[in-house]
C-alpha cells in the first residue's frame, strides 16, 4: 500500500497489466549473443567489470541535520548558461539556423510562442555579464558554443563562420582576463537545422562524424585556453524530449525507438570526440573531456521493499545510467537491456529496440570520461508498475515498468516538475560514486525556478534551495564523493525551452520586456556570494545573518525595478546592468 500523501506524476497514458516473465528476453538475448569464443570472453570481462561496481545501499537514507563546514580548498564555484537560452542574435553575423530557431518559430510549440531570437542578448552583453560573475566571485563560468554559429550548415567542409569564432574567442579571453575559468559545452541542444533536414539529425549515424569535426575545430581554435570540455549536455532530454515525446526540437514522436536510436548515436559521438581529444590534443593542451548528464534521483517508496528498490534503481539506470554506464563501463545498464529486450520480444520484434554495441565499440567507449558533469534538480518516489508490451503503446516510459510519485509536502516554487528534495542530491552523488568508480564530478547544473508572473527579487525560496542542496553536496563530499566544482543554474533568467520565458532560473532577473534586457540581482546573488567567499557554511548564526541581509538588500532592488518599469513606460532607456551593493 502506498502512503496516502504520495501523489502520482503522470508522464504517459497508463494501462495496467501484470508483469510478464523473463524467459522471452533470455531467448532474445541468446539469439543475439555471438558464438565465437573471443566475443564470449569479452562479454564475460564486461560482466565482471560491471559487477565490480560497489553496491549502493538503497536501504539507508540518512537525513542528517544541516552540516556546518567548508569545502575542500580549490573547490570551484560557478554559474551556467547555454547558447540558445541566452545569446539571442539568432540570425546575426553569419550564424546558421539551429533546430531550436526553427522549432520555436512554429506556432504552438513554446509557451506564449516565445522564441530565443533575442533572449538576454548575451551575444552583445558578455562583458556586462562577466562583471556580474566577478561580483559573485565565481571561479568558473559554464557556457555552450552554438554549432551553427561557427559552422552554419553543420558541415565543416562547407564553411566556417569566422565571426562566430571571433565571438567565442572574445568571450573566452574576457573570462580569462577576469580570472574566470571557462567550462565549455559543445552541444547544448542546438543542432544545425541543415543536418536535421538532410539526415534526420541524431537518428542518423552520420551525425557522429559531423559532430566530431565540429568538436575538433573547437579544440583547434579554443583549446589553447579552454581546459574543460563537455561534449553533450543532458543527452537524456535530447533523446527523449526531442525524438520520443516531441516536446523539444526537432519535435519528433518516434515512440519506443527514437530516443534509443538518438542516444546510441550521441554516446558514440561522445566517445569519438573524447578519442579525438585524447589522440590529437591532450598532449599539448592538457585539458579534460567529460559529458554532462542529467539525473533526477529515484527513491524507493518503501526502502524495505525489494520491488520498490528494483523499480527505483531502474528509474536511475534508465535516466543517468543509460549514458553513464556506456562511457564508464562500455555498455548499457543490464536492466535496460533486459527490460527493453523482453518488451521487444513481446511485441514480436526480432531484435531489441535498444540498439547493441559491438565488442569493438564497447572497448572504444569504455573510460571515455575524464570527469562527469551532473545536472540535478529534483527527486521522485518510485514504485513498481507493470505496463503492457503490446505492439502499440510502447515507449521509453512504459519500458521502465514503474510509477513516479511525489510528496505534496515538498516545496515546488516554480516549474511543475521541480520539487525541492535536497537529500536526493546526496543520494544521487553517492550512487555515482559507487557505480562508476568514484569519478571526478563537476556539478554542471543545480537550481530552482520561479514563475514569470512573480517579479519578486526577494527569492527566499531559492536561497533555501541553494542552501540545502549545496549542504547536501558538502555531506556527499564528506561521504567520500569526488566533487570538484558546483555550477548554479543559471546566471541569468533565460529562454526555458518549451516553457519560453515563463520559468525563471536566474540568480539575476532579466527584464525581457525591455529591449536592453537589463539584469537585476535577486537576493540569492547575495547569499550564493557568501557561500563562495566562505567556501562553505560557518555556523547557524552567520548563515542566518547572510539570509537576512540578502533579503534586506533585495527589497531596495525590488523598488528600483518597479521604478525602472514605470519609467520605461515613458522612456525606452534602461540601466544595462544593475550593480550589486554588498561587500563580503
Ligand atoms: C536542464 C537543461 O540542460 C537546461 O538547459 C535547463 O535550463 C534546465 N534543465 C532547467 O530546466
TrEMBL record:
InterPro entries: GH, GH_1_N_CS, Glyco_hydro_1, Glyco_hydro_1_AS. It comes from the Eukaryota. It catalyses: beta-D-glucosyl-(1<->1)-sphing-4-enine + H2O = sphing-4-enine + D-glucose; beta-D-glucosyl-(1<->1)-N-octadecanoylsphing-4-enine + H2O = N-octadecanoylsphing-4-enine + D-glucose; Hydrolysis of terminal, non-reducing beta-D-glucosyl residues with release of beta-D-glucose; beta-D-galactosyl-(1<->1')-N-octadecanoylsphing-4-enine + H2O = N-octadecanoylsphing-4-enine + D-galactose. The keyword Electron transport does not apply. Pfam families: Glyco_hydro_1 (PF00232). The active site is at residue 445. GO terms for biological process: carbohydrate catabolic process. It is an enzyme of class 3 (hydrolase). The keyword Hydrolase applies. GO terms for molecular function: beta-glucosidase activity; galactosylceramidase activity; glucosylceramidase activity. Keywords: Glycosidase, Hydrolase. Its EC number is 3.2.1.21, 3.2.1.45, 3.2.1.46. Belongs to the glycosyl hydrolase 1 family. Klotho subfamily. This is Cytosolic beta-glucosidase.
Amino acid at each position: 500500500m502506498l502512503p496516502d500523501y504520495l501523489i502520482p506524476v503522470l508522464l504517459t497514458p497508463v494501462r495496467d497489466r501484470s508483469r510478464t516473465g523473463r524467459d522471452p528476453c533470455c531467448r532474445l538475448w541468446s539469439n543475439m549473443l555471438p558464438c565465437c569464443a573471443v566475443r564470449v570472453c569479452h562479454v564475460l570481462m564486461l560482466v565482471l567489470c560491471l559487477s565490480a561496481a560497489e553496491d549502493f545501499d538503497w536501504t539507508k537514507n540518512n537525513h542528517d541535520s544541516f552540516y556546518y563546514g567548508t569545502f575542500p580548498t580549490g573547490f570551484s564555484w560557478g554559474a551556467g548558461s547555454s547558447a540558445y537560452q541566452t545569446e539571442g542574435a539568432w540570425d546575426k553575423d553569419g550564424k546558421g539556423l539551429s533546430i531550436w530557431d526553427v522549432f520555436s518559430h512554429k506556432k504552438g510549440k513554446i509557451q506564449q510562442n516565445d522564441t530565443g531570437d533575442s533572449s538576454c542578448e548575451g551575444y552583445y552583453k558578455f562583458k556586462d555579464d562577466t562583471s556580474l560573475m566577478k561580483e559573485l566571485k565565481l571561479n568558473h563560468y559554464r557556457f555552450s558554443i552554438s554549432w551553427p554559429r561557427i559552422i552554419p550548415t553543420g558541415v565543416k567542409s562547407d564553411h566556417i563562420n569566422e565571426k562566430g569564432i571571433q565571438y567565442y574567442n572574445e568571450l573566452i579571453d574576457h573570462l580569462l582576463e577576469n580570472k574566470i575559468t571557462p567550462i565549455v559545452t559543445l552541444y547544448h541542444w542546438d543542432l544545425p537545422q541543415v543536418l536535421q533536414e538532410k539526415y534526420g539529425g541524431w537518428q542518423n549515424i552520420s551525425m557522429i562524424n559531423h559532430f566530431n569535426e565540429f568538436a575538433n575545430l573547437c579544440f583547434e581554435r579554443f583549446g589553447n585556453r579552454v581546459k574543460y570540455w563537455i561534449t553533450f549536455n543532458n543527452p537524456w532530454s535530447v533523446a527523449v524530449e526531442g525524438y520520443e515525446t516531441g516536446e523539444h526540437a526537432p519535435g519528433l514522436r518516434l515512440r519506443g525507438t527514437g530516443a534509443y536510436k538518438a542516444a546510441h548515436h550521441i554516446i558514440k559521438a561522445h566517445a569519438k570526440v573524447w578519442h579525438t581529444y585524447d589522440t590529437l590534443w591532450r598532449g599539448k593542451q592538457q585539458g579534460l573531456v567529460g559529458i554532462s548528464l542529467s539525473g533526477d534521483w529515484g527513491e524507493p517508496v518503501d526502502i524495505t521493499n525489494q520491488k520498490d528498490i528494483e523499480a527505483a534503481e531502474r528509474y536511475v539506470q534508465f535516466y543517468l545510467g543509460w549514458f553513464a554506464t556506456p562511457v564508464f563501463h562500455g555498455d548499457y545498464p543490464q536492466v535496460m537491456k533486459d527490460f527493453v529486450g523482453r518488451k521487444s520480444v513481446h511485441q514480436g520484434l526480432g531484435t531489441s529496440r535498444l540498439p547493441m554495441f559491438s565488442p569493438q565499440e564497447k572497448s572504444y567507449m569504455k573510460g571515455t570520461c575524464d570527469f562527469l558533469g551532473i545536472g540535478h534538480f529534483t527527486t521522485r518516489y518510485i514504485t513498481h508498475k507493470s505496463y503492457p508490451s503490446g505492439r502499440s503503446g510502447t515507449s521509453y516510459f512504459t519500458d521502465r515498468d514503474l510509477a513516479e510519485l511525489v510528496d505534496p509536502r515538498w516545496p515546488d516554487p516554480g516549474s511543475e516538475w521541480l520539487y525541492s528534495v535536497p537529500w536526493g542530491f546526496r543520494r544521487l552523488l553517492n550512487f555515482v560514486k559507487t557505480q562508476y568508480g568514484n569519478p571526478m564530478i563537476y556539478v554542471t547544473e543545480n537550481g530552482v525556478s520561479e514563475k514569470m508572473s512573480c517579479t519578486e527579487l526577494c527569492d527566499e525560496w531559492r536561497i533555501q534551495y541553494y542552501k540545502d542542496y549545496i549542504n547536501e553536496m558538502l555531506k556527499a563530499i564528506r561521504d567520500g564523493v569526488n566533487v570538484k566544482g558546483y555550477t548554479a543554474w543559471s546566471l541569468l533568467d533565460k529562454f526555458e525551452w518549451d516553457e519560453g520565458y515563463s520559468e525563471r532560473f536566474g540568480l539575476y532577473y532579466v527584464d525581457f520586456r525591455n529591449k536592453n534586457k537589463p539584469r537585476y540581482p535577486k537576493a540569492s546573488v547575495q547569499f550564493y556570494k557568501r557561500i563562495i567567499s566562505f567556501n562553505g557554511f560557518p555556523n547557524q548564526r552567520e548563515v542566518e545573518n547572510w539570509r537576512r541581509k540578502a533579503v534586506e538588500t533585495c527589497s531596495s532592488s525590488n523598488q528600483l525595478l518597479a521604478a525602472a518599469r514605470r519609467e520605461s513606460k515613458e522612456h525606452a532607456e534602461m540601466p544595462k546592468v544593475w550593480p550589486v551593493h554588498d561587500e563580503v
